[in-house]
Amino acid sequence: MLPIKLENIARIVGAPETGLPDETACGVSIDTRTLEAGEVFFAIEGRRFDGHDYVVEALERGACAAVVKSSWRASEKYDERRLLRVADATRALGAFARHCRKASDAVFIAVTGSNGQTTVKDMIHHLISARMKTAKSPKSFNNFVGVPLTLLGVEPDDRAVVVEIGTNAPGEIAYLASLVLPHIGVLTNVGMTHLAGLKSMAGVAEEKASLLSALPEDGLAVLNSAEPFFEVFRTMPRESVVWWGLEGEADYRATEIEQHGETVTYYLNGQERIELGCPGRHNVANSLAAIAVARRVGVGLEEIRGALRTFRLPQMRLQREDAAGVCIINDAYNANPHSVGAAISVLDGTPCEGRKILVLGEMAELGEQSRESHRSIGKVVRASGVDMLVAVGGDACFIHESAAGGKLKSHYCEGNAEALAKLRTFVEPGDAVLFKASREVRLEELIDSLRQHLIGRRTDALCPFA
User: Fold this and answer.
1) Which domains does the chain have, with CATH numbers?
2) Cβ proximity of 428 and 353 under 8 Å
3) Which of 154, 169, 331, 420 shows its CA 20 to 30 Å from the CA of 409?
């Protein structure tokens, strides 16, 4: 963010411009723990916190001003001249971010979809940064706060910016896209996600597709050819859309896909052999979307091939580690029926000397379709090569109920503590254990506890008199 006068910030966010100190802001903060002197503090209201509780602290720490809602008053002493009063501090943050985005000459790429959007965002960044200075959304900064913070972090010499856009209610993508003003829009797929807010698959499709309305006349839509909900876009002008996918007619397609442990190979359009530095057929599809974008902005095929070999997945996405001879696969960042199915496929194809154990937590925000969605996953597990299932929490009981029977050994646990106790009784060296759930289940805590147990058990075995 370039330095900007406080009076100009006030005008942009809709706050009164009179009486402000004649000072220049050097940045933006929403967290007093990381705030630096000279930044403007935006008092964001969240589900678990209210930034207004920290306004006085922010000013004491050197914030040149604070953006607050008009009605806010504090019992503590503060400098009224340094307050920019607005109707909504979160919307004000968005308005300021949009203003700063307009000052950039970079190519802006927006990515959304029910599955894979963070991975595709990271892949695109990885490929393009081989050619030019490129910024991206940190982690999964894809909401009303994360997207503006991404835009405010863009530097003057960035030539491309990859922004992830998420949603769980109608209208969110349209609003966030109006801040990003993308030149390229990527839609990965439409899946059973956020049905509590979006109501139906058609509602999800409509919400995701609203990204395309933000594209300029010369913009580009990058679409999944295997996605039935995107068929309506087949009528778009040929120069306005690029198709990619594992199935159907596409500009970028993959054939002869082969899994090799933690990597996968395929042929791009039947000609160029590609080696991808992460596992999973679904990540082959993700890489095709990234390739389509990279080619659009001028990255050469040899550069792309080299970059894909070194690509690694984001945290908690099929991350593998060895814990005392047990292969732990952490895919616990989030979950919906499509992504769980992809994870089961990865575990199914994972070579191991022992058993393949699947730990599945509840899939959240599926609304009225939750029970049936969990039951359908149970059927997928039962038909797979998985040896053992541990279902954890809430509606995951229906995964267990549907999967139980045959050779598969299935267990249901109310929570992580019970699941840990169960896993401790039968996980052995040589086993492969994959963890997958929605964020609310916090399976990463179960992974940490199981890791400590496995390492401690091996230490005890090596040093029996310690």
Assistant:
1) 4-87 (3.40.1390.10), 104-309 (3.40.1190.10), 319-462 (3.90.190.20)
2) no
3) 331
